[in-house]
Specification:
Elements: E1 13-15, H1 16-23, H2 27-35, E2 41-43, E3 49-52, H3 53-66, E4 82-86, H4 90-103, E5 108-112, H5 115-125, E6 129-132, H6 141-148, E7 158-163, H7 174-177, E8 182-184, H8 188-201
Parallel strand pairs: 4-5, 4-6, 6-7, 7-8
Antiparallel strand pairs: 1-3, 2-3
Helix pairs in contact: 1-2, 4-8
């Protein structure tokens, strides 16, 4: 913070909020500008920051001369993305959880052990990405996908099928898998991080 040498009661000044309104930016942005020395300020005995008018005018002049715009207020962060895994194998549940923790620590993982539970959980958490096995104990993954397509939220959800079945074994489920990315479980460790990343950023 720049040091003020004149008696402070003789210096024209603004509060931080007044400068933020004048410059059209967030209060926090003004505070950072003071910390960087772009604006001159001091603190009152009560701890309130006062910013000199001359430094504000000078900053505006520099921005006008350079053609720069005042900084935009900070953007609201995107909410944490949710992933729903519908998989009955504890081994693959643990493997997917490990891969997500290692490569995507900021996502939120929810796990359903069967299709019926998965359908209920889908409606409750409204996931951004759904990972589905084909062979489930109560309702197979293809039937599950077909049923969820009628859900209003399904259009906003990305889908990835994870299965141990090869292409020939999946033929009877193609009615629901057309256009859906599929990962083969034996290559899960190698292929899963890239496949999930493409869905999260798309």
């Amino acid at each position: 913070m720049s040091e003020i040498c004149e008696p402070i009661d003789q210096i024209a000044h603004f509060t931080t909020a007044e400068v933020a309104k004048k410059l059209g930016m967030a209060v926090r942005s003004v505070q950072l500008m003071v910390d960087r020395g772009e604006l001159e300020a001091w603190k009152t005995p009560g701890g309130h920051r006062r910013i000199t008018q001359i430094s504000v005018d000078a900053w505006q002049g520099r921005q006008a001369n350079s053609g720069d715009q005042a900084p935009e207020p900070p953007q609201r962060l995107k909410p944490k993305q949710r992933i729903l895994l519908i998989e009955d194998s504890v081994h693959f549940q643990n493997l997917v959880q490990l891969l997500i923790q290692r490569h995507f620590p900021n996502v939120e993982l929810h796990v359903a052990h069967d299709g019926i539970t998965g359908m209920a959980l889908f409606g409750r958490i409204q996931p951004d990405v759904m990972l589905v096995d084909i062979l489930l104990p109560d309702i197979n993954g293809a039937a599950l996908i077909t049923a969820l397509k009628t859900h209003p939220q399904f259009a906003q959800c990305k889908l990835l099928v994870i299965t141990s079945m090869d292409e020939g074994e999946r033929q009877s489920y193609e009615f629901a898998l057309n256009g859906v990315p599929i990962l083969h479980k034996p290559r899960l460790v190698q292929d899963f991080p890239k496949a999930l990343n493409e869905l999260l950023v798309s």
